[in-house]
Structure formats: structure tokens, C-alpha cells
Amino acid sequence: MSEHQITVLVMAPLVALFAWSVAAINGAVERGKYDINPAIGIRTSSTMHCEDCWRAGHHAAAGPLCHMLPPVLLLALAALAATLLESVSGPVPAYAMLAVGFSWIMAAMVAAAHKANAAARNLHPENQHPDAQLPR
Ligand SMILES: [Zn+2]
């Protein structure tokens, strides 16, 4: 077994685990397991505005993150298959599949953050937030 194959055998499960973790953590926040906190979740100024925004943002983010899972898991599996064929195709295809999978996760996280922000901002149209009506 070559160093390339060992690398791919280690990296492919890590890419799959990373993809699953991102979706699972968002799901846990969406289900109310984590309120606004300093460590976990999509922590933008819009999503952290209030608990309603926090929940709505993570609900909106679930779509892009869940849709990212199947292709990324397939890419990780394909990378494992490709590395078994290293003697035929060389190491590049397996690495390329892992790179595409990782990039796909990053793109999904950016898309999820955009959706989360939009959902949070839509929750209280400007100057209509309940806090704005409280006496100061
Ligand atoms: Zn809010």
C-alpha cells in the first residue's frame, strides 16, 4: 500500500465525518438543543439577534447542509475506490475527489449561512423588532 493510499484511507472518512458533523450540529441547534452560545452554530449578527432568529436561521440552513451530504459521501466513497486503482490511474483522481468533496462542504456552509441570515432578517422587518418597542 502506498503513502497516497494510506492518506486517502484516512482523509476520506474524515471528509465524510466533517460533512456529517456540520449537518448534525445544525440539526441539533435547529431542534433547540443549543441556544445562542459562544461556540456552536451559525454565529452571525443576524442569527444571534435573538432566540427566534437563532432558531429560524438554523432551520433555513438545514436544506443546503442536508443536500450537501449525499454528494460528499459519494465523493468520499469514490475517492476510496479510486485509490484502490492507483496503479492504473495514479494518485491524482482520489485526491481530486476529496478536494471536491471538501470544497462542496465549504460551499454548502457559505450557502447555509446566507440562508440563515436571510431567514433571521426576514423575521423582524426593519424597526419592527419587539425590542424596539420596549420603553428605554
Ligand atoms: Zn431576532
UniProtKB/TrEMBL annotation:
InterPro entries: SdpI/YhfL. It comes from the Bacteria. The chain crosses the membrane at residues 6-29, 68-88, 94-113. Pfam families: SdpI. Keywords: Membrane, Transmembrane, Transmembrane helix. This is Uncharacterized protein.
